[in-house]
Amino acid sequence: MADIAAPVARSPIAPPEPTAVLDGWLVTTQRAVGALRICDATPLSKVLVRAAEDGAVASALGVELGRSERDEHGTLVVGSGPGEWLLLAAPGSAAEAAARAPRPGGEFVTVTDFTHSRALVRLTGAESPVVLAKLCAIDFADAVTPNSSALRTSVAKLVTDVIRDDLGEERASRSYLLHCERSSGQYLFDALVDAGVHHDIEIDGFTASTV
Amino acid sequence: MILLPCPWCGPRNVSEFRYVGEPRRRPDVATTTPQQWRAYLYNHTNAAGWVREQWFHRTGCRQYFGAERHTITDEVRRTWRPEQAPAGAEPLLGVTDRAATTEAGPDAGGDVL
Amino acid sequence: MSLTAVAAPMRLDAQPGEVIERGRPLSFRWNGAPRVGFAGDTIASALAASGVRVFSRSFKYHRPRGLLSASYHDPGCMLQVDDEPNVRGAHRRLRDGMDVASQNTWPSLRFDVRAANQLVGRFIGAGFYYKTFMKPQVLLPAYQSVLKRFSAGGRTSPDDPRDYYDKRYAHPDVVVAGAGPAGITAALAAAESGAQVLLVEEEHDLGGHLRWGGTEDLARLHQLRDLIAAQPAIEVMTNSVVVGRYDGNWLAIVQRELPHACERLVKARAKVLVVAAGLIERPYVFQGNDVPGVMLSTAVRRLINLHAVRPGHRAVVLSANPEGDAAAEDLARIGVEVRRVLDVRRGEDLVAARGGGGVRSVQCHDGARIDCDLVVTAAGWTAPTSLLNMAGDKPVYVAEAARFLPSRLPDDVLPTGGIAGTGDTDALIAHARATGAEAARRAAGRGEAVRIPALPAGRHPEHFIGRTHGMVDFSEDVSSKDLLSAAREGYDSVELVKRYTTVTMGPVQGKLETVNAVAVLSRATGRTIGETGTTVWRPPYAPVTLGALAGRILEPVRYSPMQRWHEAHGATPLVAGAWIRPDRYGDPAQEVRNVRERVGIIDVTPLGKLDLRGPDVPRLLNLLYVNKWSKLDVGRVRYGVMCAEDGVVLDDGVTGRLGEDRYLMSTTSSGAATVWEWVEGWLQTERPDWQVHVIPMTTGYASMNVAGPRSRELLQRVTEGVDLDPEAFPYMHVREGRVAGVDDCFMWRIGFTGELSYEIHAPAMYGLHVWETLLDVGDDLGIKPFGVEAQRIMRLEKGHAIVGQDTDGLTQAFGAGIDWAIKLDKDDFAGKPELVWQRDRDDYFVLVGLQPEDGSVVPPEASQIVEGRNVIVGRVTSSRMSPTLGRSICLGFVAPHLRAAGTRVTVQLPDGRRITARVTEQHAHVDPEGVRMRG
Amino acid sequence: MGVGGAHDGSRNGHRPTARYSAFALFTRGLRKSPWPRAWRAHDLRPSYDVVIVGGGVHGLATAYYLAANHGITDVAVLDKGYIGSGGSGRNTAIVRSNYLTPEGVRFYDRSVKLYERLSADLNFNVMFSQRGHLTLAHNDSSLRTMRWRAEVNKLEGVDSEVISPEDIKRLVPYMDTSASARYPILGALHHPPGGTIRHDAVVWGYARGADAHGVHIHQGTEVTGIQVARDRVTAVRTTRGDIATPVVVNCTAGWSTLISDMVGVRTPVATFPLQAAVTEPVKPFLDTVVVSGSLHVYVSQTDRGELVFGASVDPFTSYSMRGSLEFIEELAGHVLALMPSLSKVRLLRQWAGLCDMTPDYSPIMGPTPVEGFYLDVGWGTYGFKAGPVSGESMAELIATTKTPEIIATFDLARFADGRLVGEKGAASVGH
Prior knowledge:
heterotetramer, B: mainly beta, C: alpha+beta, Ubiquitin-like (UB roll), 23 helices, 23% helix
């Protein structure tokens, strides 16, 4: 065996300098100070659960299509499709999250670590719906897509899961997670930055608190 | 931009969907004649009025579903999941592009392996 | 006297409603000469203030043209502003430093040689070009080059930058198109009823005609503006237009001249659209109606009251309505000598206006001839029903009111204001208030219907065309005489006359001229205006820049985890659909040699990958592929070909069995999306009872192929947990292990290049790490990256067909020369019946290997294989110079009688030469026995 | 038996026409004497030898050639609207013959040849401008298809050649031929005989020519039914009355299924809208027709300076001709991808027509199982350019009851027989 350096995980989105390794991932250490922030959240663990739409797995997870909820472990469970759930958890915890996924006997269920297969971006700030409105035909008004809404749609002509996941005290800070297949991650990130450029969007580095 | 009510996701712009075509019953492979099989491949009612057809929610839930659309007004009066087809409707067929298509557009993958 | 006064002899003292800021003078250039104006001026008002009367020359006869409507759709005022063509000079606000030029003039506005066309006007009436230049044919290009010189448009340049344009979506409850008093009132009422409202106004300010009205109008204007400002539920867009209403109340709104963008397209899904577009004043058709100085009453009132510009010195006014009377009063107030007011309601009329560069006199119905430099017409109003038509309305003509009124509209479109009927301001406002409230109710989908009071049609003289012929379409130079003769020749329906004369087809889009054209046609055919009908109004309502329609460039691009490495190492990029890939790093032939002799590595991440789970996967594979899958052991991979139901080859790839119920299917890069939908289609609709989950993994794995005789040695240095011994890990097998310190990597032993090779699929986040490690660790073995081109060469050396290149849209599986894979003894698979019949036919072209007898000649791909003079009996689908064999090699289709190995075929090269090529025994040119890849 | 024998061929009567010429323009201008009608209106007769459904270029050309080439003049052309109100007046008036299959090339080349002399034949200037036609290739596979077309074209004697990005830049200086373009241009198929024509003029010229031979043109006459007895056509029912006839020709586009359904003939046709748009005039800068199949767009500039744009058909079937916003958005994006400097040019008008698509991107022409019922349908997006040759061949077929060789591969039976025409590979955008 050759002498091989320990692998560093990389997001498809190039981190601006300066960078550091956090939880095994190369991330930017830039910090945003403005009101509108975009963060590459790809290091989050992503687990896909597939099962019957209305079976035991569905009731165990308890999250309907189009909604998202945090479970007692802090994992964000997203009803991302019919009979399909996306679990978002802290970096490096995919195996634990997968292990916790319900597997009732007799039901056909598939649990897949998806971390390496997807890009994840978090857009935060009161103006984030305005930015999204440049790229996405969905109505981001509170009445239509309140906090915890989740949907898959076209963002910048790319298939993207959009999950409204407001942050902060009382969840008062409007925030969206955008999740797409990995090879288009840089494209999606660039499109969001372009859409936010006249709203003074700033790039924010990934931190543990991004979960 | 017409709205298509996806049975799972609700109303979305039609650009999120791929039009599949009029559903037709797949003939029994063991007994089919060339005439039957090619009618299945190629023929359409192509009606000017209410038609039953099949769509695929490409940028959403990625499910196939049925719809009843008026081909003159483009009004969609109902949609259904494959297992909920209304009486008399042909079952939805997964045989989406029954005949192969070679059309290449920006969204096609290109020409290399 | 101030400098400004000298430069602007027609500028009036301050007017009560003026929008110019006299404290902010602006300088600009007009056809090269310096001019001044004020902030708030339009280009046209500044020019008019400085004494300019002629703004352009007409399209065909090159008649001088002045201001007509002094609004966005003024046909005489299309200007070149800097690098922007066709700027609406009567709408665009003046900016400091603008370089403004007239467009349709050569060599100059004052002296235009093409004005000679006026003299020959009687010979070149509408459609004259259909009647001449038929023979000889050679004259036609000459004629066309002459015609091109007459193009009225502005100038573009290949160097013009693509400016910043933008788009956004909106989801308002109610959109109000038009912010005159009715629109404002409707918006307020809707907002008060709880609706989120978008109020869209084409002009720079809210208020419609109130802006150029008297004291009372101005008081009302300020009151309405205050109410709007206080209403947070209304978003106001000025200098913006609802340009289209599409199915589902999908509205296209264009915002112009924004701080960051030239234009922005807003795509609004409105629950309810309120159309309050007001009325457009219609020109009157009489001789000389296009002489500069003949203007509409609204133009005169705009010039005076908004921009403090004196439109002339001595005026004659033709008035059929109170607005015309008000214009006469405005003129008198500012000291213009109103020499006569011809009142249509009393049977008075205007017969002709005379003058060249400007009007000098008019002739009246009673024979009187009056000298003047300004003729004002107020002949009536056109309802701009475009948006209503787009919503399916067929407005009906009401003769007593001399106008069209809306008839039937969908529930989500409501008209109000002048477009809906006639009434005094109070009646219109009451209508608008009810309409706004009802719009909000319909948007909410609940509440009790609000009764909308009916508006009367009103009364107005039908005064479209006078007793002389005049211009109907000012932008296309179509006169009433042209329309008449077209109707006589049989072009007597409204659509035919439009197409024959081009009336209404110019940049004004029929807003000023449609109703007049219909009036002329109805007179010519003896039908009523109602019977004649109007042309179809097509979107957009106002012209929209291509920039706004295109918006920002949103074309998804896909990169593998190693793409940045490729770029840093000199790779030539290859655009392959959405993917950007390395085509080559240097000489592809050298890259090939390195693989054949040592070891190379290629990034094949774009290969489609579907993770298939579940007990029914083998049934699925049996259904999708033409070959058999029931007995694939864990750890093995197999090549498969898919056909569509017509038997045409759809895709190919290898699928491996990773575990008891887990398979990884690979597809071609370009076919990845299609195959995924194809698989899901069968599962969701035809075989919903099967237990299979399909998980797309294409970019979950960074895929790289390590190929060459030293590939095993290289991998032994970095692989853990996999025995790489050929006995333990033979050809067409798959193993899972740790590569370069990365867990969960899959390795497939397959040989697309024909070499001993390992395809490594590493979790994508570690892709770059694995790639760099392999290159680093393999340095002493001579590892070099290779690109797509080298891979194409090697796959052709090996005779591997590419679906879509070595097959086409009609190639059924037997034609691809893969008879060995097609298992017709399976009960069913996609396309099976067609393949059964194809086998029985045996009349199809088939793919074979080909080698030119002269190995130095590479017949370009798509060279045809011919017999006799021009009978096509095949074609070359792939061809390259083989670095391994030192000769040219091909794959190609040949007719059935040529398929036998050893047959000589004739290939016609694109340069016309013909060469001979030999059909080879196998598709493979190099190592047909597969010794190297099985090693 | 041809239908010409049923009646005296000149029953409808020829009439002297006022010849069009520069001299006549001049003399009439001097005398201020008006031109006569280009075609006449008639009462509907109770019977005709031939009834053609559809007063577009196909129907009128068929009528014209029936009369001019075969002396069959007892012919009625019916249109539910005005002549040319369908696809003939809604297409983007591009003419070319650079098809992929030998039979396609031969067929369209015949059409180009007829177009070249049509102004003289009809004494009506149709303004055929053979300004050249470029089909861009943005990737390897489309470049290969372009070369395939060029090679087949050359073998059939049609002028087509693959040219380089540098050649393209010379022909179209506005084109972004840089390698860094999102869809880089690798080459193009250059087809010098291709060009544009004044589409309405073709309709009117054929109408005037047919009328001069005695053909009756009935506008505003909608077919509501077709009577069939013992598998033979006997009469046509219209909104203006019934017509007895042994021959009905379906020359409609968009609505062809509805006409075929009247006699129970099933065709593999699906109707899709095809949209187009035009800009305001700008000074002429584009001399050739430019097509990009990968970007689904084609562009030409009229002599007046307007840019005319077209695209591929809409993504789903419909009989709607209302047009969509997403069409012009996508179109503008693709035009600017090719010619970025046009961002300030304004789109003036958009419209839609209906296209009857067939599975193999080729028409359906010929007899049907119902005797006397002929098809000239399934014209997809390429019907206009085939107008003259279709009229000529349909006329020959009706007059002789023998299928001319040039349309033999376009028969209806090919679908059931599995003999599809191989035009599909070239036709991602068929203009």
